[in-house]
Structures are given as C-alpha cells and as structure tokens.
From TrEMBL, chain A:
It comes from OCS116 cluster bacterium. InterPro entries: BP-dep_ABC_trans_perm, MetI-like, MetI-like_sf. This is Sugar ABC transporter permease. It is found in: Cell membrane. Pfam families: BPD_transp_1 (PF00528). Its main location: membrane. The keyword Cell membrane applies. PANTHER family: INNER MEMBRANE ABC TRANSPORTER PERMEASE PROTEIN YCJP (PTHR32243:SF18), MALTOSE TRANSPORT SYSTEM PERMEASE-RELATED (PTHR32243). Keywords: Cell membrane, Membrane, Transmembrane, Transmembrane helix, Transport. GO terms for biological process: transmembrane transport. It is a multi-pass membrane protein. One of its GO terms (cellular component) is plasma membrane.
Length: 275, 332
C-alpha cells in the first residue's frame, strides 16, 4: 500500500530514529573508546574525546588473564547449550504445534511462567544439585543449566514458527511414507529454516551474554567471558580503561556474529508479523 | 490390490461423536465417491482410512490386513489434498520423487519413474520449478503425480478440484476418470459436487451426520433412493416434495417427484400456480412455480418453453415416476 508521507514527517522520523540509535549505542561506543585510553585518561574530567590512543590496557588485560580460555568456554557453553536445546525443543514444538491436546496451551504458559521467577529463587537448589553430581564449575554442568534456562524461549519461538506451516503438508509426507524423523528432517526443518536460524542466533546471543548462572556456578575451569569481565571490575578497584578493554574483547565475537546475521535475525523475528 | 473394509468405524473428537458407526466394503479397483452436506464427516472418514486420524472404535481392513493401528506409511495409500499440500521447498521433480525416496528406491529407478509420471501428466517442462511458480491446474497435476509414482493400493482424494475454475475442473475430472480406467486402482473421492459424484463414481456413499444413508451406483441412488434424505440430496435441481392430501392419494406420508418428471401446461394440470422464477438456460428451462396450496415446485422442461415470470401455469407430476415415503422418511 503506497501511502504518501510528507517530507517533514519523513525527516522527523529519521531524526528520531537516529537519535534513539545513537543514545543506545553511545555507552558501547564510549566503552570502546575508553579501552584505548590510559588509566588516567579514562577518569579525566571533563571526559576526553580526543586523545592519543594506546593499546596499553589491552596488553595488560591479555597478560593478566587467559582470554582464549574464557572465549572457548563461552563458545562451548553458549553453542553447546543452544544446540542441545534445539535437539530437545524441535520435537517438543512439533508435537505442540501439530498434535495439540487440551493442555498444550497450559504447558506453554507453564514453561513461560518459569521465566517469570527470579533466578535466585532456584540458585541454591541448583547449586546443590550440581555439587552433588560433581558438575560445579564444569562445562557439562553449565551447558545443561543454560540449556534448561533458555529452553522455554526456544520452544516458544519454534512453536510460533511451526504454527505457520500448514499441517496438511506434514500429513502429505506421512502419506508419502515418511516416518517421524524423516518428516521432521526432510519437510518440517527445511520449511522452518528461517525461523530455526533466528532462534539459534538469538539464543546464542542470550546464552553468550548470560551472567547470573555463569557467575554463580563457575569459578575458573568453566568460567566464561562474563567472569572475565567481572574479574576486572571488583578486585582491581576502578581501572576503567582495563575494564573497558576487557568488555570490548568479551562482546567482540558476538557483535561480529550479530552484525553478519542481522538480516536473518530481523526476518526471523518479524516472521509471521508481516504476511 | 486395494480392497478396503470398514467395520463399525467410530470416531469422536473429545465428547463430540462425528462418526457413530460406519460399515463399508470397497472392492478392489472400485471408484467410490463420498458425498454429503458440509460437516457430515466425509473428510474425517477419509482421514481415518488414510491413518491421519486415530479410530475411536471399530476396524479398518485393507486387503485382509487389519491396519486400524498402523501408521499412514504402512497402509500404502496415496492421498491428494484439497490444498495440494506440495512441498514448497522442493522442485516438482523432488516433490514427485519424495515417496520413492522414502521407500528407499535407488536414484536411477526414481528418475525413470518420475520422468514417466511427468510425461503422462504433461509436467516435463516444469520439473525443475518449485510449486510456487505453477498454476493451480499444474499444482494439482503435481499432487496427482506424487500420488501415482508409488503405485499405491488405493488413492484417496479430498475435494481435489474445488480450488480450480469451472473449465479446468471439467478437464481434471476427465483426467482423473481416465487415470482410474488406466490404473484400475481403487479410488475414494470426497466431493460435494453432485456432477462429480454422478459422473465419476462406480458407487456413491451418501453420508449424513456421520451415518451412511445409502451405498450404491449413481443410477441406483437416483432411481431407488432408500429414504427421503438421499432422494432430496441426489439430483439437481432437487426433488420436489408434497405432503397431506396429495400424498395420501398415493398411500404415502410424503411423495417426491423430480423436476424432470413434471409437465407444465398453460391450460390444465394438478396444481395451479404462478411462475416466481424462470431460468432459461438454452437447453433447459427451470421454472419455480408457486402453487396455491402445495408449496413451491421446480420444474425442468426443454429450452423451447415460452413461459415467463408472472405467468399462471398448471404443473403435474408423472404419476409413474413418483417416489413414496413413510412417516419415518423411508421409501415405501
Ligand atoms: N480435529 C477436529 N476436532 C474437532 N472436531 C472436528 C475436527 N475435525 C473435524 N471436526 C468436526 O467433525 C465434523 C465433520 O467434519 P469433516 O471435516 O469430516 O466434514 P466434511 O464432511 O468433510 O465437511 P466439508 O464438506 O465442509 O469439508 C464437523 O462437525 C467438524 O466440526
Ligand atoms: Mg471436508
């Protein structure tokens, strides 16, 4: 539908969008900038916009800690938990979307309700359970916990995408002799691919940035980048430049991933909204 | 082989009983059409045979084997859906090949069969396209192609032509009939189009509220309907009915007479009435005559009839073509 929008309004909206965008980006931008300052420059007042950049803080950060270990842990925990969650969520979402029962809606609501509870509420029991199984501060333990934490959102997202697929097409595959796993692999997954891809991406980002569980359930062996950042905040006092450098290094990989997949993310997340 | 037997088939959705109890014996190679008003359970019955719905009670036996608890894959039936249900992410070639691939056939064999099916359905030029780029008629043919490659023991069709325009429908109807003659495979076809039912079927199943009212050849249903419902359902325009004194004269609770079995006269006849609608179709003329004391009747005469809206006419049924019904609705 071609609707005429006056030049004035166009300019107004564009300006508003840019202002909001800049406001949101500014803290990140400032953090990146601060990482290239000296510790003195970082706390200078008034704040410095122009300065001679230095890699001093980055050097210190890398010398003081094993960055690659944290990155590996983050990748394994975020990636592993996401993949594992998909393996569990695809069949669950399939059954709820294509052979619902009277209680499907309740199950979905119940799953969502687990996200309404403050995580601290279950911290102690989960901590004790992990301890009992000897999984504290292990990648396996964290993969399982993170998988469970994000499962409701993944199932919900997949459920909405699957709902859009006409069930007759799946029935046709059954008539054509496909057993359940073939129906899912050859028909459902290819058709839901955009939705699955954006679920995967979004969940990777959520899991990467998750800090409550990773901070509380890891110490060193399975410590992720969130531990890496926090190790630069408290014990070192207020070393803003180093903290900024560390934070930039922590969000770097996921920012790059987000940047290259932004088109996929946007199409995936607005899937169904615009027909 | 494709002999399909239904024994006391019962289906409930929750507390709602959709199919109370159906018994049918469909012979191998037969073309059977399910007709009935909307919501009477035609699709449900077909889906039960297909295995897409679970039975609540009763048995389904295909070629002597009880398949009541078998998955659709095990029943080896093929289905053509109203929406075509093609795989949108696959080319026409892959769509048609899908059942063969599922059966684990080797690629060379698959290619040969797909090419042959495509040729017989005029789809050779479209094999590399995806379904989204095809017209309705072509999609329908792909769906049929996908059904025939595997040589199933029976075909199930659920209103396969209802998304096509009138001219294409006639063509596809003939194609499906030809296909049946060629393959001699059992076909079960759901429709609510009378013409499709009468022209294609070897035998017709008339359903009402999940019950089989009558199972017989098209002409059986037309000439010897077992009850008032079948009499009124089969035939177009519908049969006219009269009760009271007119019926008593024939020793019946109600009598019925088809529009094509009535005579129209401007001078004399059984009922006097006024023409409320006159449809001149060229070959035929349909008159809706509002009679003084027996309701409105529809008549069918040849195209030459020069009677128009508002005219006063006399209509009478051919007494040897009268259907008689008892108080319970059954034919006498
Ligand atoms: N999954 C379902 N859950 C509950 N009720 C259903 C379900 N499917 C069908 N029904 C009900 O069963 C009855 C028969 O439906 P069915 O689709 O078989 O009718 P139909 O004869 O094919 O009608 P139409 O000519 O409109 O396609 C309807 O009353 C319908 O509402
Ligand atoms: Mg139907």
């Amino acid at each position: 539908m071609a609707r005429k929008v006056s030049i004035g309004r166009k300019v107004g909206f564009t300006a508003l969008a840019w202002t909001l965008g800049c406001l949101m980006f500014f803290p990140i931008f400032w953090m990146m900038l601060t990482g290239f300052k000296t510790e003195v420059g970082a706390i200078a007042s008034p704040p410095q916009f122009f300065f001679t950049p230095t890699l001093e803080s980055y050097k210190d950060v890398i010398e003081q800690s094993n960055y690659m270990r944290f990155v590996m842990n983050s990748i394994i925990i975020a990636g592993g938990s996401t993949l594992l969650a998909l393996v569990v969520a695809i069949p669950s979402a399939w059954s709820m979307a294509f052979s619902p029962t009277k209680h499907t809606k309740d199950v979905l609501m119940w799953m969502l309700s687990t996200k309404m509870m403050p995580p601290v509420g279950v911290l102690v029991p989960l901590y004790l359970m992990l301890q009992y199984f000897g999984l504290l501060d292990t990648r396996t333990g964290l993969v399982i916990i993170m998988m469970l934490i994000n499962l409701p959102i993944i199932i919900w997202m997949l459920f909405t995408y699957f709902k859009e697929i006409p069930s007759e097409i799946l029935e046709a595959s059954r008539m054509d002799g496909a057993v359940l796993w073939k129906e899912i692999v050859y028909v459902l997954l290819p058709m839901a691919l955009p939705g699955i891809a954006s679920t995967l991406l979004l969940n990777l980002i959520l899991a990467w940035n998750e800090s409550f569980w990773t901070l509380n359930l890891t110490a060193s062996n399975a410590a992720t980048l969130t531990q890496f950042i926090s190790s630069f905040s408290s014990p070192q006092g207020l070393f803003f430049a180093k903290l900024s450098a560390a934070s930039t290094m922590a969000i770097g990989p996921i920012m790059v991933l987000g940047w290259f997949s932004q088109k996929q993310l946007v199409t995936g997340l607005t899937f169904g909204a615009v027909k | 082989m494709g002999n399909i037997v239904l024994e006391k088939v019962n289906k409930c959705f929750g507390d709602v009983e959709v199919i109370p109890s159906v018994d049918l014996d469909i012979k191998d190679g037969e073309f059977v059409v399910f007709v009935g008003p909307s919501g009477c359970g035609k699709s449900t019955l077909l889906r039960l045979i297909a295995g897409l719905e679970d039975l609540t009670g009763g048995k389904i036996i295909i070629d002597g084997v009880d398949v009541s608890d078998s998955t659709p894959a095990k029943r080896e039936l093929a289905m053509v859906f109203q929406s075509y249900a093609l795989y949108p992410h696959m080319t026409v070639r892959k769509n048609i090949a899908f059942p063969l691939k599922m059966a684990g056939m080797d690629q060379a064999e698959i290619d040969k069969k797909v090419e042959a099916a495509a040729k017989s359905l005029n789809l050779t030029d479209y094999l590399e396209r995806t379904p989204g780029l095809l017209s309705g008629g072509q999609r329908q043919r792909v769906a049929i192609g996908r059904a025939i490659v595997r040589s199933p023991s029976a075909f199930l069709f659920d209103e396969p032509l209802s998304n096509l325009d009138a001219a294409l429908r006639v063509n596809m109807r003939i194609e499906i009939t030809d296909l049946h003659k060629e393959l001699k495979t059992t076909m079960i076809y759901v429709t609510h189009d009378q013409v499709e039912a009468m022209t294609m079927a070897d035998r017709i199943v008339v359903l009402q509220a999940g019950d089989v009212e009558q199972f017989g050849s098209p002409l059986d249903l037309y000439n010897k309907p077992v009850n008032r419902f079948v009499a009124g359902f089969i035939g177009s325009p519908k049969m006219n009915f009269a009760t009271g004194k007119d019926a008593e004269e024939f020793n019946a609770h109600e009598i019925g007479f088809r529009p094509e079995h009535m005579t129209v006269s401007t001078t004399e006849g059984r009922w006097k009435g006024v023409v409320s609608v006159a449809e001149h179709l060229g070959a035929d003329t349909f008159l809706h005559v509002k009679t003084e004391n027996a309701g409105t009747f529809v008549t069918r005469s040849d195209g030459e009839l020069n009677i128009n809206y508002g005219d006063t006419v006399y209509v009478s049924p051919n007494t040897d073509k009268i259907y008689r019904f008892g108080a319970d609705g059954l034919s006498l």
